Amino acid sequence: MVETQSDEILHNADTEDVSLLVVGDPFGCASIPATTHTDILLRARSLRIPTRIIHNASIMNAMGACGLQLYNFGQTVSLVFFTDTWKPDSFYDRIKENVSLGMHTLVLLDIKVKEQSEENLARGRKIYEPPRYINTLAIALSRVGGGPENERIVAEKFGEPLHSLVIAGKRLHHLEVDYAEAFAIDRENWRRVAKEVYGCALE
Amino acid sequence: MVETQSDEILHNADTEDVSLLVVGDPFGCASIPATTHTDILLRARSLRIPTRIIHNASIMNAMGACGLQLYNFGQTVSLVFFTDTWKPDSFYDRIKENVSLGMHTLVLLDIKVKEQSEENLARGRKIYEPPRYINTLAIALSRVGGGPENERIVAEKFGEPLHSLVIAGKRLHHLEVDYAEAFAIDRENWRRVAKEVYGCALE
Question: What are the recorded GO MF terms, alphabetically (chains A, B) (predicted)?
């Protein structure tokens, strides 16, 4: 609604209290374009409607739970659903920029909730598509052909949404390695890569 | 206490519920080194004490209130008090990295609350220094010597703590300019610089 009916939301907001509830922080919301809330605040401002922002926890800081330090994260990246006509690949350059500076990247995986098909949108039919989440089955294949003692194949399904992904940068601190190790499927391998590839000073 | 008495905090935590309350998010707390909470969680883990993290709003996302998009921020930087023996200037390189990619920088300004002097710490005297905040008087001098019609000098005192600073990167979006304009002391100048120096497509 916020994207298509902001006039309705602001209707009468000069005389009554109107709240807009979001998931996460109003400015760090992954479910709608980041500019949507800025836009509605700008409209309110132009109509001289006073506004107040109440902040909340968000994936943009809660990602610290994975053990990587917030200070070592570069820009956050959104990975969006591709359509037939829209395949934005700028996420790759953004991640590359972070990687080049040794910084971690939070990758937010797109969701499509209460979306109309282009046809329904054009015809003004309030029929919504079933919710979709970037939540594919993923299979990581390591050292394939290296013999059964070396090969490792891990299939992962992440369960209910929401999901995000963190790519660790080279500026990895040994405390980050220690902390995040608890989440590693293969702890020994996690530490080995941190040591050998990332150059972390681990015991 | 959390930095010096974590053993005390964890004492009995295996048999009773112990909470550690912080300002902001547990992992995005500016008042203590970012590693302190990771460290106490690692100790709890090694003692097999179960832990649970409850996230909260933090300056690391609430900064979105200034109108710059969270997605356009690079790494967050801390600007700490210099001492006679410790003058870390790495913040400069970090800001430079963000600037080189056109990203905004959140600069967290150091605070010293409940700090002991080195002497009191060494002698085990629980005497604490008065709280200090990076909160200097700042005077911005622009076009000095350019004649009274061009010169502009702005003195600013930010009032009660806490404070942080945002440095805008070149990847500035016109909606960011529009939104943040409301906070500009000189709106006209704000838009002019966004247009001429940052190359923003403004009307």
Answer: diphthine methyl ester synthase activity
User: Whole-angstrom Cα distance, residue A188 to residue A194?
Assistant: 10
Does B76 touch chain A if contact means CB atoms closer than 8 Å?
Answer: yes
By C-alpha distance, which of A3, A43, A59, A87 is closest to B71? A59
Where in chain B does DSSP place strands (E)? 77-79, 105-109, 111-112, 132-133, 138-142, 152-156, 164-167
Amino acid identity of residue B126, one-letter, is K
Complex ipTM tops 0.85: no
For the entire predicted model, the pTM comes to: 0.80
| Tens digit of each residue's pLDDT (9 = 90 or more) over A9-63 | 898 898 999 998 888 888 875 545 557 788 888 899 899 999 888 888 888 888 8
- Residue B72: strand, helix, or coil: helix
User: Both tokens of residue A109?
Assistant: 């995986």
DSSP A91-158: HHHHHHHHHHTT-BEEEEEPEE-SPPPHHHHHTT----PPPEES---EEEEESTTS-TTT-EEEEE--
Q: DSSP string covering B118-138, please? A: HHHHHTT----PPPEES---E
Q: Do A57 and B58 touch (CB under 8 A)?
A: yes
Q: Using a CB–CB cutoff of 8 Å, tell me whether B105 touches chain A.
A: no
- The answer to whether A69 contacts B103, with C-beta atoms less than 8 Å apart, is no
